[in-house]
Amino acid sequence: AARLAGRAATTPVWVSDVEIGGPGFTVIAGPCSVENRHQMLTTAREVHACGAHAIRAGAFKPRTSPYAFHGLGDAGLGLLAEARERTGLPLVTEVVDVRDMERVAQAVDMVQIGARNMQNYALLREAGRLRMPVLLKRGLAATLDEWLLAAEYVLDGGNEQVVLCERGIRTFETGYRFTLDLAAVVVLKERTHLPVIVDPSHAAGTRGRVLPLALAAAAVGADGIIVEAHHDPSAALCDAAQALPTSDLAELMRRLLPAAQSA
Ligand code: PEP
Ligand code: MN
User: Could you list which residues have their CB under 5 Å from ion ligand 2?
Assistant: First the structure.
């Protein structure tokens, strides 16, 4: 992350042996969802080959429609463990229900609280009981104050390993999926010591927009990105249009290298 004027010192969060908020720019990549063994292991291998630092994939998916694919659940956690075994990369996955927290926390290296649950205070309190990294995504309509207070719920429980993730907010604009608020990164860097990463994928909505938004995130001083990638995007069960083929992820990693090195 570039050292910019006005930045508060960042307290790094370690996800296994991967540092977020240190001198480097961290890339977490993987499919929206764990879909099956072949998909998960193939994508994980390719994500690793691209040089990404950690793997993302949802086993429990918060979906707008109750009829959509909601993930493989515990079977998905098992496939994630296999992906970690093969690649050595740490895992990030979402928890959507307090009843799943303990099992999810035991299975992965960082627990994600998604945008739709940013103000699920029971879930935040439960995350506060953990002693492991939590990725807290910004709510669809959350102000920076509301987001920081949500983070406080986790910190107040004694868990200080919180990373914030800007993933786009709901505005009047319909020309893309969500409005990526990169000014939020700049302001959070003034206001909090917590690392801040950006999810360009859910804001972009389509894959062609992901690379420029990811480069912009690096330019404004984000500590990293979490980006959706799939070994065969056309077959993806969730968020197919925004999934990068791993060849595009490789290109993104090359383009991010100068940002990572100037950290
Ligand atoms: C996700 O990361 O797949 C996800 C559901 O993100 P968000 O909570 O930001 O919509
Ligand atoms: Mn997704």
Answer: 32, 239
Query: Per residue in 121-150, pLDDT tens?
Result: 999 999 999 999 999 999 999 999 999 999
Strand 13-15 versus strand 18-20 pairing type: antiparallel
Q: DSSP class of residue 9?
A: P
Q: What sign results for the dihedral spanned by CA atoms 87, 22, 188, 128?
A: positive
Q: Which residue, by CA, sits nearest to atom 4 of ligand 1?
A: 114
Residue 261 falls inside a structural domain: no
Closest by CA to 118, choosing from 94, 140, 145, is 140
31 lines ligand 1 (CB under 6 A): no
Q: CATH number for the domain including 239?
A: 3.20.20.70
The rounded distance, in Å, linking the Cα atoms of 230 and 56 is 11
State yes or no: ipTM above 0.85: yes
Among candidates 234, 124, 213, which has minimal Cα distance to 166? Answer: 213
How many domains does the chain fold into? 1
pLDDT the model gives residue 28: 98
CA angle 114, 84, 150 (to 5 degrees): 20
Residue 55 lies in a domain: yes
Specify if 173 maps to a domain.
yes
**Domain that residue 48 falls in:** 13-256
- Whether 221 is covered by a domain: the verdict is yes
Cα angle 91, 202, 71 (rounded to 5 degrees) comes to 50
Candidate from 137, 169, 180, 228 with most ligand 1 atoms within 8 A of CB, to mutate? 137
Establish whether residue 231 lines the binding site of ligand 1, counting it when its CB lies within 6 angstroms of any ligand atom.
Answer: no
Determine the Cα–Cα distance for residues 115 and 167; give it in Å rounded to an integer: 8
> What pTM was estimated for this model as a whole?
0.96
Residue nearest to atom 9 of ligand 1 (CA): 115
